[in-house]
Design a protein that fits this description.
Beta-Lactamase; Arc Repressor Mutant, subunit A; 2 domains; 5-stranded antiparallel beta sheet; about 50% helix; elongated
Length: about 240
Amino acid sequence: MNDSHTLGTIASVVLAADENELFARMQAGVQALGCEQGLFGIQVHRPMLEPVQHVTSGYPAAYQQIYQDRQFIMRDPTVAHCQSSTMPLVWNEGMYDTQSFEILEESRRFGLGHGLSIAVHESATAKSMFSIARDKPFLPGSVEERRLKEGAAVLASAMHVAMQRLVVPRMLAERTPVLTPREKTCLHWVAQGKSDGVIADILHVSSSAVHFHVTNVLRKLEVSSRAQAAAKAVALGLID
């Protein structure tokens, strides 16, 4: 891609000060590439925990609602492609089967019938997917299509970096339970294999008090056993 203005617009994504500015810069980059709407989703995997996900989308709200209500994500060929490959995928009718053709029909209805999806697999921990769409088709093998692939790859990488800085820390913090100092202390000793009675002696409190705090920890961590609580707390960085 040799359009320096377009490249500058795309690269500026990494300079966004907050999520609102990031979305605006993403959309500017999408439009600089000749498309109308963009979508970026990131998934962060955590040991022994459910992955956390975040999506920033310029797609029409009505389309997003249909996509969610009909669970299109389970049969979307662009999602399946981006889970396993970082090669750009230019959308085409042939990639939809009888189970997923409805997605193409709805996409066309909302002016999202043509586009491209590309993934960034930074590591086993963080993966992201970037899609750009428009109503007009691309000519296969054209300069425009090549420019789209090159620009989308740069924009996807820039978005991935910016999301890691601006959004991922908040995502993880929002999903991390807040424990009181006493709960953390009790959990520390639980992780050492100590019983409520032993912990009570160490802390000079009653066994019922320790049991109360440990029960709260299990509830906050959404686990059913002390061993699960200790493992999850370590994974979340709540205890060493």
